[in-house]
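JOB MANIFEST
job_type = single_chain_structure
chain_count = 1
residues = 723
[input]
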Amino acid sequence: MREPLELWGGIECTIARIGDDFRDQSLETGHRDRIEDLDRIAALGIRTVRYPVLWEAISPSSPDEADFSWHDTRIARLQELGIRAIAGLCHHGSGPSYTDMLDPAWPELLARHAANVAERYPHLDLYTPVNEPLTTARFSGLYGHWYPHGTSDETFLKILVNECKATLLSMRAIRKFRPDAQLVQTDDMGKTFSTPTLAYQAEHENQRRFLSFDLLCGMVDRDHPWWPVLLRNGVDQADLELLLEGDAAPDIIGINHYLTSERYLDERMARYPEHHWGGNGRHRYADAEAVRMPLPPEDLGPAARLREVWERYRRPMAVTEAHHGSTRDDQLRWLVEVWKGVETLRDEGADIRAVTVWSLFGAVDWNSLLTRRNGFYEPGPFDVRAPEPRRTALAHAAEALAKTGSFDHPVLDRAGWWKRDIRFYRPPARKSNACRLVGAPRQLLITGATGTLGRAFSRLCDFRGLDHTLLSRNDMNIADPASVKAALACHRPWAVINTAGYVRVAQAEDEPERCFRENAVGAHVLAQACADLGIPLVTFSSDLVFDGSLDRAYVESDEVNPTTVYGASKAEAERLVLSAHDKALVIRTSAFFGPWDRYNFVWSILNTLSRGEAVEASADSVSPTYVPDLVNTSLDLLIDGGTGLWHMANLGETSWRDLAAMAAERAGFDPALVAAAEDRPTFSTALSTERGILMPSLESALDRFFAENEVDWSADAMKLAAE
């Protein structure tokens, strides 16, 4: 009887050198300072973890100096928790500053570090001396992203062979202390597809992708097609002959597969965004993600690539990274797709031991391959932007897979974006329903069909493949218990998002009863009905629950003290909802602006400026909120199982006047046309958070607002648009 499929864990720990700058992902995600993370991993049921014991961290200044103090406490704690570590010795790094991957001494220096690790931790029996040697060699020696920033076949191949030689020497050094130590060798195995014109380039890349495993398995002999290529590019024949001995053959082949791994080459460059354009000296072509092309689905994806590796090597395997930096629903879909694909291959007879959820504590700036310091964070099972790492839906999935081998969530009723029509650069003439994985996908219920927020939720749920029903007041009156009960019984939603309510702040002073009925009574009725059925609820509140008297931005625990009828109705709604429903998520936000609704402050300012008129705006502090960011973040938090009170606004407190000036400048107007309103005491209901900053910056939001609204703001253009 075969062993059940295991779920392993991994921590993004790259110490990458770019120029003379070193980046340490363990520092950037905070793992370096949180030994408690190991207990969090154990609580998920994970019993094997890829863990850094990195050369650059232990011997950064000299090979004669080694500081193991940080690792001693972590490795000991992993032992106490019953977690088996796969020790990573060099993770996308080029080594400490006193060497690099083109240094002939690099393999011996890494092997020296490997021996130090094995001697200090004799219980460790799983090692990855060099993570993804082929990928690292490409990024460091062929594409120039990382140190030593090579851009030639010669540099690429010399780095690759040096990495493989280092792996062999490291395993020999380790096995002097632990003879049964196993090599878990990782790499990406993405395939290249192409038009007929570029078939020769695709074939070249498809041969190249196997090089790291071929070298380590002793398969690159004189009859191998890459033997003469390696020699022609200056690789030492003695190193190739050393690798022929084959004692660096992986005990477990680890495949790291991403949606960007598979590529499509096309000489018709105009069909693709410019960032995909490139060439090989013989042809100019676009190099795009293969999932964006109408290729046969069975040719793409992790199962297809794993099958190829199994058939080529017939060695035990594992998926050693399964990660997707995307919305939470697609992160879940990707992990489950990888898991199910592995189960299918195991049924076919492939010896695949595990799937590794990656990265447990997220990653920073991998959308730019670490080449820019933008602070772009992608959460994993834990989101480290909270005071303590917060469990996401991926943590719930990981725990279920680790402990039971299965996981379910309503978002899994639809396929990920890579299988929906939105993936194509050239949309198909006919829409496909192939992305529906079940006959009747479970639905969200969204109230507020006529409002800005309700329509935005519907739009982005469509984009994210989240089946939903958008209800107007005629469909469900949230202040009427019978109407709510009937609608919930009819639609049977897995969650409800309430964007309905009274929104006319000034008019509320004259209609307090109606304002309270629609904002407070209605929210309470809906919360009670959802609580009775165990349905999660998201509802929205306002910064106007505060009086604006603090000399700082408000956080969730600050006492409310509304000064308007509207603010009082929202404060009462918060109290009633949270007392009625322990799974309710109440989100305070403020000052909407967005690309789909022109009835907001930013659009008003730009319209006025386009007529050649100056504008005035107050110096009151505010936290502007870009509607797409609010909707996407709220959906992620809902899928995570978030509850309680959260503040959500784009990061970057500002004044109405400064917001108007920033918008004016981006639209091409003179920001001096924006003047401060008459002097009066300033008022601030700016929002901050003590629960975790999940929203992007205001600067980023404004940039995207203008990128998504390609509007000519000149007076003539605006006049023509109005006509």
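[summary]
The chain is about 35% helix and 15% strand.
The chain has a mean pLDDT of 94.
exit_status = 0
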